[in-house]
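Run log, item B.
One chain of 289 residues. Sequence copied directly from the ordering sheet:
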Amino acid sequence: MLGLGLRDSLIDSQNPRYHFSVYLPDAENSFFASIKKGMEKGAGEYHVAISYHSINPVKLELQYASYTGVDGIIVCPYLDDAFAKAQIEKISSRAIPVVLINHMIAPDQPWPYVGPNSFDMGKKIGSRLRTVDGPLIPAIVYSEKSPGIYAERELLEMGLTLAVGNRLTHPVYRLYTTTNPLDAERIVYRLSREHPSVNILIFTDARDTIAATQALIDMNLVGKVRIIGFGEEDAILDFIQKGVIEATIIINPEKIGYEAIRSLYELKAGGYTSTSVDTGIELVGGVRK
């Protein structure tokens, strides 16, 4: 078996029944750490070994996945759907079961999916915004740190637009941060100069949420710009209690990881699993003062 691109040591329960390979973006953050935590819990329960690899096309690891001799593969596709689809079809042609997490390549994809429903996420955000008085001019800040949400941005925006209806007074702005922790602060400063009418900021990464909120506090814009954050970090929940953040999106990455292992085990052992496992989304908001 090829040992190409093994990023972490093999996580191996005693006498594993199967070896599963997991292909993830290179982002090292709490979201993917929680996905791994859930996978390792599932691996222990189902007695499988797992190894982690990069999905970055430059590293060639997914391209060689079909030759590694593993019993099943979990893929978190992002950004380049055509690339991921071609590689996953090659894996499937060798009768290796595949489960996708966090992002569906296409609505009619033949592979099981485990993760949140981005359309539902948009609807929940939009339902919260409908309760805000006055004009709604939102900007969504996507991030390289949350590639799955960025890959499904059209679904998220469709759900948001449907829920808000005619309350939108301007098309949704799209903004983007890299892994640079200063990007979110820069976006807040740039918007205040170039698009001062934007009064809703929606974030898709916890670190961006915290950094941008602090920038709004420093600029005395709390109340003038409402924030829909992402994540359940203590700092974010504290900002909600203080009325600084309107609400936050909470998904369960640990559940995504666990359910991915369970689904792949069922597929390998019995030849069948659910076509889609919705791991759920919560929108937690504070009481307006």
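Observations after the first pass:
- DSSP finds nine helices and twelve strands in the chain.
- Residues 12 and 49 are 4 Å apart (CA to CA).
Flagged for discussion on Thursday.
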